């Protein structure tokens, strides 16, 4: 069962000083199933965070729809407040996410107060902290963020999301600011929450190793659009898009030499014609696309937008031309 869907989603920002508008999200179809963890991966500036914020209603889409549990998410304040109780955000930097003047108790209880919770607030806060791995929870009630380790602060942020009993977490680089020794603990926590609570999650990351460890499915994003998606093992063991291959090649355990992409990602206000990756594509540069008879298509024809479903898909003329029959 699909819990959250993006349908033909576009987010465009006005250009400065007469520049063309920036197409930060440029036609995205994405489904997240109930109880599923999806990793959204790509290099910095590809539109991952903007897409996540649009799914949460924090950025208003220029066009397209976000559908949650069968109903379109409306932009009015009342509808968004009800929606955000069911979909919660976990930010990258726990230090920046927490008010240094608020105790742990106040930080976790804030969501309950915003949404007018009428039950036992103390019990709800204690349960959320306990689920986030801070036990006994009462020991943390009166502590301030500066008195906690980085991992404990991230657990407080997660507890603040869990206290509202959401159905979906959107985690934006949830372990990027943590020490390596703590990252595994936070990832294990997210997996345990999925098992115990049936939570779904969209994990935004540039780290394909993290995606391998936590996700059921992966969506690879480049210049505002998803270019490859599918089961995490299938995509990360047999990538079909040259961009995915390049991202994987720089992992420490990857066989062979790293693939060094030429140049920087294009400006989203000047998306190139044809395949948006073609100017940096090693397959086109090496002549392999020419041999497959698709070089002209790479330069002039935009691959169709992937439909967001759970099956493996790739937006690449060469990958499709060379796929086994």
UniProtKB/TrEMBL annotation:
It holds the Pfam family ABC_tran. Keywords: ATP-binding, Nucleotide-binding, Transport. Residues 6-248 form the ABC transporter domain. InterPro entries: AAA+_ATPase, ABC_transp_ATP-bind, ABC_transporter-like_ATP-bd, ABC_transporter-like_CS, Oligopep_ABC_C, P-loop_NTPase. Gene3D superfamilies: P-loop containing nucleotide triphosphate hydrolases. GO terms for molecular function: ATP binding. Belongs to the ABC transporter superfamily. This is ABC transporter ATP-binding protein. It comes from Streptomyces nigra.
């Amino acid at each position: 069962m699909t819990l959250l869907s993006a349908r033909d989603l576009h987010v465009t920002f006005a250009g400065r000083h007469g520049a063309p508008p920036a197409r930060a999200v440029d036609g995205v179809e994405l489904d997240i199933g109930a109880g599923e963890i999806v990793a959204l991966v790509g290099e910095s500036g590809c539109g991952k965070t903007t897409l996540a914020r649009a799914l949460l209603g924090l950025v208003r889409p220029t066009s397209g729809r976000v559908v949650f549990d069968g109903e379109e998410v409306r932009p009015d304040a009342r509808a968004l407040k009800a929606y955000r109780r069911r979909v919660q955000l976990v930010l990258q930097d726990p230090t920046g996410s927490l008010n240094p003047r608020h105790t742990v108790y106040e930080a976790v209880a804030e969501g309950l107060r915003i949404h007018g919770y009428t039950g036992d607030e103390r019990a709800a806060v204690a349960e959320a902290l306990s689920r986030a791995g801070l036990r006994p929870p009462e020991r943390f009630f009166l502590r301030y963020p500066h008195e906690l380790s980085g991992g404990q602060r991230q657990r407080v942020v997660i507890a603040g999301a869990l206290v509202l009993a959401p159905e979906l977490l959107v985690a934006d680089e949830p372990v990027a600011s943590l020490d390596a020794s703590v990252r595994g603990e936070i990832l294990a926590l997210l997996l345990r929450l999925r098992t115990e609570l049936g939570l779904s999650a969209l994990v935004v990351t540039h780290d394909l190793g993290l995606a391998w460890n936590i996700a059921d499915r992966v969506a690879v994003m480049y210049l505002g659009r998803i270019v490859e998606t599918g089961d995490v093992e299938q995509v990360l063991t047999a990538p079909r898009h040259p961009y995915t291959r390049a991202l994987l090649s720089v992992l420490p355990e990857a066989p062979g030499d790293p693939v060094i992409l030429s140049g920087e990602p294009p400006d989203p206000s000047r998306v190139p014609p044809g395949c948006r990756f073609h100017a940096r594509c090693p397959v086109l540069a090496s002549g392999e696309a020419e041999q497959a008879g698709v070089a002209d298509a790479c330069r002039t024809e935009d691959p169709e937008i992937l439909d967001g479903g759970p099956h493996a898909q790739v937006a690449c003329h060469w990958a499709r031309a060379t796929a086994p029959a």
